[in-house]
């Protein structure tokens, strides 16, 4: 079968300086290593406390699961698989500080992701495009943010990109690479269940785009080989979930979908998860509760997610060139391998339409968007305009985009990297010095789980109640020993705002320590005790 024609990309390098170094077989390793050294130093020095956004999940879910694993039990979480907590637990064997272990794991995963982006782009496009594309990813605001954020985002991204690389790195069949890609995809799925996109993406790419130029029977066999290793990888966990929960694909992510369909913009987050979410028991129920709303929400999200990806994730200064790249690729059909890569991105984009938008969810799409932008910058007509005989206008624009993105990223992350609640660490230090770890394992009520991590306690969510009497009843019910109240709790439970002032402490709560700014109080619960 004749090979498809490649799109007309200018043969002159966008990056004419040091061409031998750019094309060197270790260039990707050097680029990734440099990123790791810089980002690891920054992350460990400045990101000392997790934030109240994404890292809430780290303290609330992943740390307790890792501790259970270290104690010999494997918990089944409602919204994700066991891969990340297992890795975190392995790191915990060598360090007791799981938070900074999680930060370092994210930095290492980001480094790995950059390596595979460079190597994938070098094979699909050219070395100079691989360099500029990888650098644009490396300085992207969201990519940098989640390089120092403890969570699954970068770990999942590294696995998904590694799998994509092994699928498309060769233009001829390499069964070992296909099998390895299947294993990596299985681990990605066991990290975040939206990794299931690969089950649809692989057949779509191999049967429709035919990246290896195979006959139909061979395409089916190649897809089956991949899917076979994927399911072999996830099978032990699936069987475990089947035995313990009654479902091979156990997950409650339908509750996130229900929030997108029925709650977002209508009711508060706490009200939904404390009250409304209990009415949904399956994805089928969510879909058929209002099929019309379900479908219209998906179509609405196509526009909203695409616009947010190009504006928030990528930045319109680069996103406008991505739109140009779509037009050019439609006019000049790309190679089968490039088309397959974009099919992967398209399927992943489709999966994300089911849930509320977040830039971090779209990180897997970031290299694809940048590849589209670089397609515009390598447009043949632009290549005719050059500076100093060798530098194309596309290369100059690429440098401007790199500088622009880098400055935006610097400004955002400079303010964000230490935005976590420093008062939590202060109270944790006070607790260690004045009370000690004899209270480890006891229950503390709080709106966020950070304080439980620093006091080595079990966190109980601040109950969704209206009166103080109801709060006391919940403290008795959960056998709570401590209550933590800060501006976070006051913001979500304003009816208890008076607890910010330890002078107003009711008899059931004895103030142990407090911080004036931001207002924060740690209470000892003394139900039935004499104050």
Give a short overview:
This protein has 531 residues and is mainly alpha-helical. The chain is built from 24 helices and 7 strands. Among the domains are: 155 residues, no CATH class; 81 residues, no CATH class; 104 residues, no CATH class.
Oligomer: single chain
Return residue spans where pLDDT drops below 50 for at least 5 consecutive residues.
1-11
Largest sheet: 5 strands, mixed
Please state the CA-atom Rg, rounded to the nearest Å: 25 Å
Count every helix, treating DSSP H or I runs of 4 or more residues as helices: 24
Total strands: the figure is 7
Q: State the strand order across the main sheet.
A: 4-3-5-7-6
Cα end-to-end separation: 86 Å
Principal-axis shape equals: globular
Relative helix content: 55-70%
Helix/strand class: mainly alpha
Tell me the β content.
5-15%
Topology:
Blueprint: H1 19-22, H2 27-46, H3 55-70, H4 83-92, H5 98-124, H6 127-138, H7 141-147, H8 153-168, H9 175-191, H10 197-209, H11 216-245, H12 254-263, H13 269-274, H14 283-289, H15 291-313, H16 316-331, H17 336-352, H18 366-377, H19 380-383, E1 386-387, E2 391-392, H20 393-416, H21 422-434, E3 443-446, H22 450-455, E4 458-461, H23 468-478, E5 482-486, H24 487-492, E6 509-515, E7 520-525
Parallel strand pairs: 3-4, 3-5
Antiparallel strand pairs: 1-2, 5-7, 6-7
Helix pairs in contact: 2-5, 3-4, 4-5, 5-6, 5-7, 5-8, 6-18, 7-20, 8-9, 9-11, 10-11, 10-17, 15-16, 16-18
């Amino acid at each position: 079968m004749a090979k498809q024609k490649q799109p007309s990309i200018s043969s002159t390098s966008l990056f004419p300086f040091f061409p031998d170094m750019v094309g060197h077989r270790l260039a990707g390793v050097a680029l990734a290593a440099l990123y790791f050294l810089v980002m690891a130093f920054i992350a460990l020095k400045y990101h000392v406390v997790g934030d109240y956004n994404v890292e809430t999940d780290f303290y609330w879910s992943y740390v307790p699961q890792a501790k259970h694993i270290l104690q010999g039990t494997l918990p089944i979480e409602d919204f994700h698989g066991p891969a990340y907590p297992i890795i975190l637990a392995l790191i915990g064997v060598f360090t007791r500080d799981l938070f900074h272990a999680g930060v370092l794991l994210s930095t290492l995963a980001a480094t790995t992701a950059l390596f595979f982006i460079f190597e994938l782009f070098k094979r699909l496009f050219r070395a100079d495009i691989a360099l500029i594309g990888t650098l644009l990813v490396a300085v992207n605001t969201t990519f940098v943010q989640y390089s120092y954020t403890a969570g699954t985002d970068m770990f999942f991204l590294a696995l998904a990109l590694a799998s994509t690389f092994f699928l498309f790195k060769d233009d001829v069949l390499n069964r070992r690479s296909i099998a390895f890609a299947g294993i990596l995809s299985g681990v990605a799925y066991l990290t975040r269940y939206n990794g299931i996109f690969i089950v649809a993406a692989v057949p779509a790419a191999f049967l429709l785009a035919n990246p290896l130029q195979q006959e139909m029977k061979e395409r089916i066999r190649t897809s089956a080989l991949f899917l076979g290793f994927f399911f072999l990888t996830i099978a032990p966990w699936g069987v475990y979930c089947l035995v313990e929960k009654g479902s091979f694909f156990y997950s409650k992510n339908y509750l996130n979908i229900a929030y997108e369909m029925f709650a977002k913009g209508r009711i508060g987050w706490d009200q939904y998860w404390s009250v409304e979410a209990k009415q949904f028991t399956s994805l089928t129920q969510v879909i058929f509760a209002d099929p019309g709303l379900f479908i219209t929400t998906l179509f609405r999200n196509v526009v909203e997610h695409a616009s947010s990806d190009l504006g928030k994730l990528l930045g319109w200064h680069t996103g406008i060139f991505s739109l140009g790249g779509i037009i050019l690729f439609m006019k000049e059909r790309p190679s089968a391998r490039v088309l397959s890569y974009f099919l992967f991105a398209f399927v992943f984009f489709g999966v994300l339409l089911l849930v509320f938008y977040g830039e971090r969810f779209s990180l897997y799409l970031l290299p694809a968007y940048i590849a589209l932008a670089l397609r515009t910058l390598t447009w043949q007509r632009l290549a005719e305009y050059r500076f100093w005989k060798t530098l194309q206008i596309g290369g100059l624009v690429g440098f401007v985009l790199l500088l622009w993105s880098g400055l935006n990223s610097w400004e955002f992350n400079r303010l964000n990297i230490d935005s976590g609640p420093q008062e939590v660490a202060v109270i944790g230090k006070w607790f260690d010095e004045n009370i000690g770890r004899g209270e480890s394992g006891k229950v503390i009520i709080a709106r966020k789980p950070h304080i439980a991590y620093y006091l080595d306690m079990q966190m109980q969510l601040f109950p969704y109640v209206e009166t103080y009497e109801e709060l006391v009843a919940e403290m008795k019910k959960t056998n709570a020993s401590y209550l933590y109240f800060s501006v976070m709790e006051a913001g979500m439970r304003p009816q208890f705002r008076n607890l910010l002032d330890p002078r107003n402490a009711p008899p059931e709560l004895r103030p142990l320590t407090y911080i004036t700014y931001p207002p924060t109080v740690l209470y000892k619960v003394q139900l039935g005790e004499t104050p």
